[in-house]
Specification:
Strand content: 5-15%
Mean pLDDT: 79
Number of domains: 2
Number of strands: 6
Helix content: 40-55%
Radius of gyration: 23 Å
Shape: elongated
Number of helices: 12
């Protein structure tokens, strides 16, 4: 059975400095950035609030192990790609923690890890990959990921969509309805629609905000499929100003498009 090969994205940019580049042997240390205001870092704590600290600790161990691999930043040794069990054996941290970490850090909203099939990545990083038998270790490692991480990913997706909705009420009921919606809609599609609705609501007159439906009702009725022109409430206002402190520039663009399509000039 082919094991996935994980590598740290942009390793050379983030974890190499002049001194480390001069070292040809395994590093006994690694330069770790102390930045805590990046988008992916913030998304880690937003999407996975209950396990974010655990995951960040696991990330530090992953970086340290990767710094000692034959190709720095690529989680592989002479036997091939490293598994969650391999990382546990090397660091004494729980195997389940690394199984979760593989899923969290390859999540499309985080993207700290790249993942490829062993044979696909062989020529560029490992040379010839040996074939790996489907032994009990492989089965156990895959099962750990399959059992825990599918549910983890779905829960994280629902949480991210809930956080994007402009009204935070009835969270558990809302999460259940979002879960139902995710059976028919992709995560990306549902998140984008929710963000677009939030962008429209952001421009509503203050006296109209009372009409924002509870999230449970909005998702239950499939309002994410509505004509987006119906999300606009002019309230007699013909000129609006985009707030400069909004966190996502894509929301700016969505918001401006909605208002312009409805005859409202937008003052930058």
């Amino acid at each position: 059975m082919e094991r996935p090969l994980y590598s740290i994205r942009n390793w050379a940019d983030h974890y190499e400095i002049a001194q480390s580049r001069r070292e040809n042997s395994n590093l006994k240390w690694v330069a770790v950035p102390n930045k805590h205001d990046g988008k992916s870092y913030k998304r880690l704590f937003k999407l996975f609030p209950k396990i974010a600290v655990e995951m960040y600790g696991a990330w530090q161990l992953i970086v340290q192990v990767a710094s000692k691999c034959k190709t720095r930043g690529v989680l592989a040794d002479e036997d091939g790609p490293l598994t969650a069990k391999d990382l546990s054996d090397k660091t004494c941290a729980p195997e389940k923690t690394f199984a979760k970490a593989f899923q969290v850090f390859s999540h499309p909203e985080i993207k700290w890890l790249d993942v490829k099939g062993c044979s696909e990545h062989a020529q560029s990083t490992l040379g010839a990959c040996s074939e790996h038998s489907t032994d009990s270790t492989d089965i156990h490692n895959k099962q750990a990921a399959d059992d825990g991480e599918k549910a983890l990913t779905k829960a994280a997706q629902a949480e991210a969509i809930y956080q994007a909705y402009p009204k935070k009420t009835g969270k558990q009921a809302a999460l259940a309805r979002i879960g139902d919606a995710l059976r028919d809609k992709s995560y990306e599609t549902l998140l984008e629609a929710t963000q677009a609705y939030a962008a429209a609501v952001k421009m509503w007159p203050a006296d109209a905000l009372q009409y924002v439906p509870d999230p449970e009702r909005w998702f239950k009725k499939g309002r994410y499929d509505d004509d987006r022109a119906t999300w606009v409430r002019k309230g007699g206002v013909q000129k609006m100003r985009i707030e400069k402190d909004a966190s996502d520039p894509e929301i700016h663009e969505t918001l401006k498009e909605i208002w312009r399509e409805n005859g409202v000039s937008v003052d930058e």
